[in-house]
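Appendix B. One record, verbatim.
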Amino acid sequence: MHVAIYQSSPQHMYGGQIDLIRYFRALDRRQLQPHIIVPGPGPFVDAAQALALPVTVLPLPPELAQTGGALLQGSGVDRLRQAAMLLPWNLRLARLLRRISADVLYANNRRAVLTVGMAARLSKTPLFWHIKQVNAGRGWMDALAMRLATTSAGCSQDVAAAFRHHHPRQAGRIGVVPNGIPLQTFAAPGPDMRAALGIPRQAVVIGQVGSISPRKGVGLFVDAALRLAPRHEGVHFILAGDAPSAYATYKQMCLERAQPLRAAGRFHAPGWLADMPALLRSLDILALPSRVEGFGLVVAEASAAGVPSVRTASGGHDETTRDGETGFVIPVDDLDALVERLERLISDAVLRRRLGIAARQYALDHFDLDRFVSSLTTALVHTASFS
């Protein structure tokens, strides 16, 4: 079976991109043959090509190419103009889908579904939407994406339940593809990055890892660091990741706010780091104060590494974290709760160790990569049956 994989943000390597690369590595290509389609180059393309996967670059019109940029937003006139810009691009994509004999087309975010949906219809290629998050402010866009998708699946039970609730007519076409990670990669002992980052061996290290954007609550992490640092002189903070181009100003604002701690050598912002296991081994505590989340893949990874997390009650928290047992779950946008839970873990090494041991065992029991690969393959095969 031939599956076309559309990745709308190849310039990044975060959860959605990493999921796909892990899937490709573990996939039995005798059963399913992927063809990658992207709007431009980037590390995702490099990783796919390193696996000897075919890649086709179809550049989008510049106005629609920016991550976080306009796509069916603005006034009615704006949306018509954007749809008109998408039409010739979709005609090219439809021809490509027919040429490679695609049995199914995969997209893993709303933007991607809205971008490729017309081509899927024109080429009569069933479209599978792997839903990665819920965003209440995009209800009508989600409704349109649901109409364009042949089938869909949430990356967590929370995401699937939210979409079934908001789109009851399509509830029967919304499944779940449970997330998985290469457990031994994260659970195995190995080097960390403390020396490279200039962090003392005895320091307590709190980190946030991922895209630097408002939905990830990075500003809350910075504010928590500014509160905690004066009380706990031995604590260091790591903000690992980078910002999509649309959020470059937000990243700059966050780093400027953290400047007193950066100048003191206690707040480290190394950018995107490829060696995630080594980074997580550098942490004592993971913070994930996201406003919007689908699952929280980094929590599963940190858990496998034996690192307890403090995360918000956004999508997937029931599946990643047992509150008080493997980490802590706090309300969204609650800075006081974030500071209080982090402070408890900073001050109690025995508690950190107990939660970390439980987190590792929970990850080993629940986040098997083979289950993810099997579930996603089954979902793609099922979607292709609608052709």
